[in-house]
Design a protein that fits this description.
Helix content is 41%, strand content 16%. The protein contains seven helices and six strands. The protein has helices at 61-67, 79-90, 100-107, 116-124, 144-155, 157-170, 174-195; strands spanning 3-7, 19-26, 36-42, 48-52, 73-76, 97-99. It is globular. The structure holds manganese (II) ion. Manganese (II) ion is lined by residues 23, 25, 153.
């Protein structure tokens, strides 16, 4: 595993192939209050590129081009939050996209455990730590523990997607999953515009 730390943008010419796993770390879970601090990206090859936004410069032309590239699928776990953050700070829709949490909810209906740690353990036999989850991602210098934790959130998404795709196919829910993934940018806009606690489909 190799970690590559960059500031404010990806360097020009980093190639992730047809699908890139993406995660964000922020100051907290509020889309109006908490800023985007770090973005992690992996092609699923064991390497991770981390982009730190310490200077609050979100121009990031290379990163925006990658995230909005229609030929590159973006893999997330709980895309709803990351996609909203990316809309807010980088002003692009990270599409086309895939969400391992939604896929899990559509096929693993025998459990209510759909956290990344649960999926890694149950689907690919990998133990990941969530210890650094609530650390200070706004720090000027991130610790090795923070960087390793942040990377572990994207390193396994390709393997999870492969397992979940088999289950979606088996249960006949691939089209339903695709429709849910495609709706996420609009779910994120509803969140950002005040419908975050409201289910507009409810009676
Ligand atoms: Mn994370």
């Amino acid at each position: 595993m190799a970690l590559h730390l960059h500031y404010d943008d990806l360097p020009h010419g980093v190639d992730f192939g047809p699908s890139v796993a993406v995660d964000t770390e922020t100051m907290g879970l509020s889309l109006v209050r908490d800023r985007l601090c770090l973005m992690q990206l992996s092609a699923g090859d064991g390497d991770c590129h981390l982009v730190q936004f310490f200077g609050r410069n979100y121009a990031a032309p290379n990163l925006r081009a990658l995230l909005s590239d229609p030929n590159v699928e973006k893999l997330f776990h709980f895309a709803r939050f990351d996609v909203a953050m990316i809309q807010q700070y980088l002003e692009v829709d990270a599409t086309p996209l895939y969400c391992t949490k939604i896929a899990s909810k559509l096929v693993r209906t025998f459990t209510d455990r759909h956290g990344l740690k649960d999926l890694c353990r149950d689907l690919i036999g990998v133990e990941i730590s969530k210890q650094q989850q609530s650390s200070d991602w706004g720090a000027e210098t991130l610790t090795q523990d923070q960087l390793a934790y942040a990377a572990s959130d994207v390193l396994h998404l390709h393997a999870l997607q492969a397992r979940l795709d088999v289950l979606l196919e088996r249960e006949g829910r691939s089209a339903m999953a695709r429709a849910c993934f495609d709706f996420i940018p609009w779910r994120a806009r509803l969140d950002r515009q005040g419908w975050d606690e409201v289910d507009i489909f409810a009676h």
